[in-house]
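User: Hi! I'm working on a homework problem where we have to compare a predicted structure to a textbook description. Could you give me the structure for the chain below?
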Amino acid sequence: MMTGEAWFAVLPDGMPGLAAARVLRPLAGRVVAHHSGRPWLMGHWPDGALTVASAGAARVAVAGQHPATAGSLAAALARTRSVDEADPPAAAVPGAFHLVVSAGGRVRVQGTVSGTRRVFATRIGDAVVAADRADVLARLVGAGWDAEGLALRLTGATAPFPFERATLWRGVREVPGDHWLRLDPDGGSVEPRRWMPPEPVLPSSEGAPLVREALTAAVDARTAAGGTVGTDLSGGVDSACVAFLAARGPAEVVTYRWGGYDGADDDAHHAALAAEGLPGARHVRDCLGQVTPLFAGLSPDAVPADPDEPFAWVRSRARVDQLARTMAHEGARVHLTGHGGDELFRPVAGPHLADVRRRHPLTALRQARAYRAPARSGWQPLLRALVGSRSPARELAALADALTGPPPLPHPPDTGWSPPLRMPPWATGDAVAAARALLLRTASEAVAPHSRWRAQHQALTLARFTGVSAGQADRIGSRHGVRFAVPFLDDQVLYAVLSVRAEDRISPWAYKPLLAAAMRPMVPDPLLDRATKNEFRADAHLGLRQHRADLLGLCDASELARHGLVDAAALRAALLDPHPTAATLAALDATLACELWLRAALAPPPLPTAPHRLPDLADRRPPPPPPEPRAPATSPGRQPPDRAPASPPDPTAPGPGSPTAATSPDPDGSPPPVPDPASSDGAPPPYPSGIPNPRKATDTS
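Assistant: Happy to help. Predicted structure tokens:
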């Protein structure tokens, strides 16, 4: 965890949670209390990062990208009788955010299905505690790193299924995005399921309007507040759709694209067409000499990596930082990207054919023949792939056996639950053995796919890969005051897209047919009809040449090599060799991401973000019942401090333990004193300089 970065932890409303709060105290600069007065949210976050509201004794906090206000949250909370009922109101709010509810002594915590907002949990003493960052919990409990898990990450820049939900910190687990975490007063927890993929039964004619509605709401959630927002305008279909939707809102739009070194790609042409259709937007383009090269900023003395987990976009890390700085200079508060479009509308062909075969065998055969034609592959391998029915567990065992096999062939289309896995040639025998052991051990257990439909399983797995990386990019942007948004990966958009039949969503004869049908009324046809995509291979090779010395320095001081996971000499040779295909570069990406993550994981913990001592977290018992009603006051003005309220408190109004009450100013503009439940006389306790009063730490933006 880098000093000063934002994070929050969630504690149960009971004595075990109070004990855990004492462990969190050295790092926490902000505290928000349960109605009982015990700490509920602790952490370090900027003003406005949380929207907090209350209704009676219940509390709700939302962190992320959403249009909700404290008032709308309070109104929804007033209709909620328990944390079990909190999901339907939240599901109606577009965007991507954490939801935390405290009601009836229990706590609900949830993130997003795609992993753009994640929830982690571990046990501190007798209490299960949640947080939005795995590394924070790992530092608190002294968790070590998982060598087997890191070895498996060498197979690709992202963790393969089903390990994409496993952290690399021992003892810290991730709550699946389609579940929510319930924290009980006694310190226990359960993880009920909250989201299920729909049955993919809608034709495109019925599903496209739903996709358009969900995507429009997702973009509106980021633009509704006005101001200035940024969008990608690479020339691709996905970024064009987001940009045109953003331009319909009240915010000023600034588009951004960087010049590529591949003279054969047609991104510039399509980006120019898109810019012509957005006359009200400002268009920013970094030319070739201004673009930060790929693989920049990865030297041994570079900025530390995100210690949550390896960053799959490692080669672009410096470009993400440049984009954030550029958008900050343009005054943008958020930047919308088209990431997620490929994952939903143009994934690698194959798994969907298994689904189509189950319902429409002839359609599956026709599509398979179209995919087979360019490679001129034989029919027998293709038919075997179509009729294959291995379970996810059996497939994991087969993947384990093939870890050191030759590179997989692109044809026939792979219809399995997971793409093939290969260890890089510089992985040591110990690393291969560790990865294989993890795969085989997992294969011996029950392995449930994300959906019984392989195309849905593939889409959710890919969305998860991209969502986690987008969340890490968001942290990079937040250092410059710019948040990154990926509207395609919002829960509501995922649900709308996955409700459409696989054969209508993915086709060998049309490029992203469902997205084109959904956006046809809003985006010009020449942009939607584009059927090409730039892979930035020239940029990658140029960046590798320019920064080879830095990468060799990283190799010579490799922590992966020191811990026996890679052969430093073989890795050095690979850095010096040419890379004719994208596959070898992808293997290099995975190793660089793991190397930088391990360096961050092994680094000493940073200085606390809250160097001052928080007030003593004594036994916080529930506040006493309200006093008996007294005679009405003789003056309509404010009561003196030693007078009781003129009438009984409204149970639905913010009370003394209410976050909103803690931020309601007196007529002179200063917040009123808030009694501490642990204090016998009701006077607020003293707070050290620089540390906010926990009862005044609420953000109600």
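For your comparison, note the following. Residues 454-478 form the longest helix (25 residues). The longest strand covers residues 58-65. Good luck with the assignment!
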